[in-house]
Design a protein that fits this description.
Elements lengths: L33 H11 L12 H16 L3 E2 L12 E12 L2 E15 L10 E7 L4 E3 L2 E3 L2 H18 L7 E7 L7 H8 L8 E7 L11 E3 L9 H12 L17 H6 L4 E5 L18 H20 L9 H4 L18
Parallel strand pairs: 4-7, 4-8, 8-10
Antiparallel strand pairs: 1-3, 2-3, 3-7, 5-6, 9-10
Length: 347
């Protein structure tokens, strides 16, 4: 999750080289695998990836790892203009990278998002998309310290991988798209680039489910946003509450003030119903101490289960998400919360 300020280190832009059936009822789906989540997360936080700063070799290696998983599970690339490059799953975008050109203020750089789809099976609805997102970039290396970004946002990235593994053989009515973005820590750049030049019609994107920092916090504490954002609270949030409750989780609303600080906001800005899951801020937020040993993998698996079922329910629903009247959402009761730490976010 970016704090509405950018933090960039030095690095070279180097790229690493490198439809199918399942029961549509959530109860019949495979369970999330904490051991798999742990192995994927430890790789993304390894020294070889140097903190995954956008535009660096380490971030390109993370992108290649995501693409490898998409290939391994035979997921369909999004076949559209703007796709391709290093792999068929890559969506390249350009940006002005600060402080990377021998002291000069900016340099033109290239970065990548990754997209795979689970095709919809309903001829009348297959052209509508439910996007599941997470950013895989982090802060890189600064002043001799690597920022591994285990919670922010290797946790969301591996959760996205696990959701795609669990749903890869689904037969949803609408198409489910899995989108891993970079550039989030620089100011939501990857998601905004994607939505500014989408490889599919923007009006085809009907919902967005985002995961950012989903591996820490108090036991049982899972936050959702928007919870009380007028004009943005939709039936997607209402359904998430129902899905979570069916899995024994009462969602909390303790991070709603950070509504604009992650990629779901890029979708919301375009009028697309959006939701973000988060398990709360902590003292290791944007610090070199955000390490894999502090992740609660059981809790991470819980978030995966909620997102899996919410995504499939949304893809199979008769109606699309729509705004909820304030009189309804203002009356919702949320779980009490006591996050490890909720530091002020720099603006």
């Amino acid at each position: 999750m970016h704090p509405v300020f950018t933090r960039a280190g030095l690095g070279l832009l180097v790229y690493a080289t490198l439809s199918l059936p399942l029961a549509s009822a959530p109860a019949a789906l495979s369970k999330p695998d904490p051991a798999r989540l742990k192995a994927d997360l430890e790789f993304l936080c390894s020294p070889d990836l140097t903190g995954r700063e956008t535009g660096t070799e380490g971030c390109a290696k993370a992108a290649a790892y995501v693409a490898d998983r998409m290939r391994e599970w035979h997921l369909t690339p999004l076949k559209a203009g703007g796709m391709g490059g290093v792999t068929p799953y890559h969506y390249q975008w350009n940006y002005q990278a600060p402080y990377r050109n021998n002291g000069r203020p900016t340099v033109e750089a290239e970065a990548s998002n990754l997209i795979a789809v689970i095709p919809g099976g309903d001829p009348g609805l297959a052209g509508e998309y439910v996007f599941v997102t997470a950013h895989y970039d982090h802060l890189g290396t600064s002043w001799g310290s690597m920022y591994p970004g285990a919670d922010d946002n290797a946790s969301g990235t591996v959760a996205l991988l696990e959701v795609m593994r669990l749903l890869r053989d689904a037969r949803p009515r609408r198409t489910i798209a899995l989108l891993a973005v970079s550039g989030e820590e620089e100011g939501l750049l990857g998601s905004r680039a994607f939505l500014a030049h989408p490889p599919l019609a923007l009006e085809a994107i009907k919902a967005n489910v985002n995961m950012d920092m989903v591996g820490r916090g108090r036991p049982g504490e899972v936050h959702v946003m928007p919870a009380r954002q007028d004009g943005y609270v939709t039936t997607l949030v209402q359904t998430a509450r129902t899905v979570a409750a069916s899995q024994g989780v009462t969602l909390a609303a303790g991070i709603d003030q950070h509504w604009q600080a992650s990629d779901q906001y890029s979708f919301a800005e375009r009028g697309i119903p959006s939701i973000c899951f988060n398990t709360g801020l902590h003292p290791d937020y944007h610090q070199p101490t955000d390490t894999p040993d502090k992740i609660d993998y059981g809790k991470l698996a819980t978030v995966v289960g909620i997102v899996r079922d919410l995504t499939l329910r949304t893809a199979n629903a008769d109606s699309l998400p729509k705004a909820v009247p304030e009189a309804v959402w203002s009356a919702w009761v949320w779980a009490p919360f006591q996050s490890e730490l909720a530091p002020a976010v720099a603006r």
